[in-house]
Amino acid sequence: MTRLWLLLLLPLLLSGCPGEWIRVDDSRRNHQAERYTVSLPSGWVVRTIGDVLTVTRDGPNLQRVRIRASLHEDAFDSIERKSDKEMLPSELADLFIAALKGEESDGLPSLQVLSNEPVTVAGRDAFRLHAGYRLESGLEYQLLAVGFVTEKYFYVVSYTAPRLLFFERNKDEFEHILGTLAPI
Amino acid sequence: MRRDGGDRRLHCASPGRAGGVLILACALLLGGCQSSAVRTLNHADDTRQLSEYESRRWYAAEELDRHWRNKGLIYSDGALGDYLQGIAVALYPEFGGTLKLRVLDSPDLNAFALPNGSVYLNLGLIARMENEAQLATIVAHEVSHFKFQHSLKQRHATEGAVVAGWAVTLLTGIPLSGQLLALGAMSGYSQDAEREADREGFARMVAHGYDPGSAAAVFDIMRAEAEALDSDEPWLYASHPKLTERMQTMQSLAVQQPSAGGRRESARFLRETGDLRSVLLDRYLIGQKYKQLIHVLENAEIRPRYPGHADFYLGEAYRQRAEEGDGARALAAYHKAVGLAPDFAPSYRALALIRMQNDERPEARRLFKRYLELAPEAIDRKYIEMYLQRIEGES
Fold first, then answer.
1. What residues of chain A lie within 8 A of the CB of B22, using their CB?
2. Residue A64 near residue A45, CB atoms below 8 Å
3. I need a labelling partner for B275 at 20 to 30 A (CA). Which of A38, B245, B310, B353 fits?
4. In angstroms, rounded to a whole number, what is the distance separating the alpha carbons of residues B43 and B147?
5. pLDDT (0 to 100) of residue B187
6. Residue B320: pLDDT over 60
7. How high is the ipTM of this complex?
8. Residues paired with A23 in a beta bridge
9. Is residue B309 scored above 60 in pLDDT?
């Protein structure tokens, strides 16, 4: 009996208290964060944990767009590296890939870079990375990430979805979000 | 003290301290009080009739095999796999057909065996060895763990983590990493189990004519790395005093051998492990493991085992470390790499970026162009073209 109670309590205890998902209605489409403003797709849901904003329509495992605006000193803390305002986009991309590959919990060690090129976002030089990886279940995901630096912050906007069906389906929303991002 | 490498992965995979404590508690409860005696295996036939308890653990090990394969963590090199398999079967012919040697695509110094005969050696561990005798020491040690079924005997670590991991995954859908599930096998065993595997493994490698002195050299490589990185030792070797003690044990065992010398097979090892050392440098760089790069490539004894272009990686490591004087060290290392390996493209890109940042445009342009000549399909070609456009636009 004790084991049963423990099993029932386990998910609750482990899940902790993450930020609440909030539906994006017309009044919430124009999202203002401390470090940026952005337009979110109507009908999706959004939540913020720390400096990471996540939006999804069907659930984060099916598609998610994440925006992270971190201080330079926190930009790549998982690999104990920092960004700085002078960094070239190719250098940022290298660090971003290293940080992704260092994540063990998400199949990211199998990350394969499909393309990596310079773009301009909000008037700034940025990297645009397209990559694929595979979960332990064998399910293939693809990821688009665009990152750049400003005087104080490292910004990265990423889109992740299963390769089959979902990735292409919501790419336009990602591009819309990226196109409306305005660093503060 | 901070831990590097594999330990950090465990931290990433774990659901936090509270969750970890709960999992351990859950594991102890769910693990129950198994009283099944765990057999030492003497032949592959011993694995054909497993008890229910052994069968469950065998299945759990196969799940781990699948997990790592699906995650793309297995380093795929057929010839290298055959080579490792050959060493293992030569050392333990009685387990032919049961042992499965695999290489994990990780630069960290680690190896472990699962109760179903799967033996994993990290790419980094193999590449850091100097000869086949040292590699055989590791293989023999790990197969000994399989022979004695140490992972089953050490229930608190292995079984508890596996059971708890499954429970959490089933109930919450939270996919716990295989690192956690494999905690018992990967984190090392009790001192008694390690001593047993050391003795058995040593006897096997010596019986096959390998140089007894090579066994202690393996531990010396680990100890030197642990000291250089200012970190706890890799899991395989557990705590520092224990590592030193084990090195001394190997030395004393070697001294007790009736005849000195034996096979090292350095040439064959270097041939069979091919460009694994280049791959390791690449893995260190991608993983931002600059301490390891500097430790390996600044060592005059180790450096000759690496190709000419290795100095490019040393330059990158200095740049990543970014201590006073590292800029000049990096520049010197890139120049040395160009001298030793003039067709290795990344050295030119690294030099070009430095020249560009120093506003030395003509030289930056020349170096970028040389980079693109040597690596026309480079994945960062568009960045380089953009940099070239800007240099030419500003000139």
1. 10, 13-14
2. no
3. B353
4. 9
5. 52
6. yes
7. 0.82
8. A45
9. yes
* A102 touching B (Cβ < 8 Å): yes
Residue A15's nearest CA partner among B258, B48, B16, B231 is B16
Q: Rounded to a whole number, what is the distance in Å from the CA of A67 to chain B's nearest CA?
A: 21
**What pLDDT digit, counting tens, does each position of A36-77 carry?**
999 999 999 999 998 899 999 999 999 999 999 999 999 998
Determine the pLDDT at residue A108: 66
Kindly report the average pLDDT of chain B as a whole number. Answer: 79
Please state the φ and ψ torsions of residue A154, each to the nearest 5 degrees: -105, 125
Instruction: Judge whether B299 is closer than 8 Å to chain A, CB to CB.
Output: no
* C-alpha separations of A133 from A108, B6, B374 in Å: 6, 20, 29
Q: Which of A68, A66, A63, A55 is nearest to A142 (CA)?
A: A63
| Token pair for B321 | 């470390």
Q: pTM here? A: 0.77
Domains and CATH numbers, chain B: 6-267 (no CATH), 275-394 (1.25.40.10)
CA distance B353 to chain A (A): 9
Contact B312, B285 (CB under 8 A): no
Q: Indicate the residue of B70, B171, B288 with minimum beta-carbon distance to A138.
A: B70
With cut-offs at 50, 70 and 90, classify the pLDDT of residue A18. low
How far off is chain A from B247, nearest CA to CA, in Å?
31
Name the band, by pLDDT with cuts 50, 70 and 90, for residue A137: confident
- Please list every residue in chain B whose beta carbon sits closer than 8 Å to the beta carbon of residue A141: none
B383–A133 CB contact, under 8 Å: no
Helix, strand, coil shares, percent, chain A, to 5 = 30, 40, 30
